[in-house]
Amino acid sequence: MRSKKQKQPAEKSRKEKIVEKLMLPKDLMLGAAVVTVTGQTEVYIENYRGIIEYTAERIRLQTKTCSIEITGSSLNVGYYTNDEMKITGRISSINYGS
Q1: In contact, 89 and 76? CB cutoff 8 Å
Q2: Measured between alpha carbons, how far is 47 from 96 in angstroms, rounded to an integer?
Q3: Which of 12, 25, 78, 94 has the highest Cβ tally under 10 A?
Q4: Strand ranges (E), 1-98
Q5: Please, what is the Cα angle at 83 between 18 and 65, to 5 degrees?
Q6: Phi first, then psi: what are they for 19, rounded to 5°?
Q7: What angle (nearest 5°) sits at the alpha carbon of residue 70, between those of residues 81 and 84?
Q8: How far is CA 54 from CA 10, 13, 50, 57, 74, in A?
Q9: pLDDT exceeds 80 at position 2
Q10: What is the model's pLDDT at position 33?
């Protein structure tokens, strides 16, 4: 009988292990996105790389580690800089992709 290899969970990178061990902020050290939601009308996103899609019903952003999709109605980018933005409107969902 053959033994089946069990799939191991993805190992953390050396950098991730060091950041966790030293209890350093992941957003600064690894460039992780920071998403702050205020009710159903505002989302602040830090550490994004670019806008993939922008309509009144959907905004898709690329971050260093994933993509973020915000859906809703009357969506608008209130302001943006090189690394942060504010999205306003009626937000119905926030999804993370690879």
Answers
A1: yes
A2: 14
A3: 94
A4: 34-38, 42-46, 48-54, 58-63, 67-80, 84-97
A5: 45
A6: -60, -45
A7: 15
A8: 32, 33, 11, 8, 11
A9: no
A10: 87
Report the alpha-carbon distance of residue 69 to residue 61 in Å, rounded.
6
98's tokens:
């690879």
The reported pLDDT for the residue numbered 26 is: 64
DSSP character string of 37-59: EETTTEEEEESEEEEEEE-SSEE
Structure tokens that stand for 86 in this block: 């504010």
The length of the chain in residues reads: 98
For the stretch 21-59, pLDDT in tens is 777 666 655 568 889 999 999 999 998 999 999 999 999
- pLDDT of 65-83, one tens digit each? 889 999 999 999 999 999 8
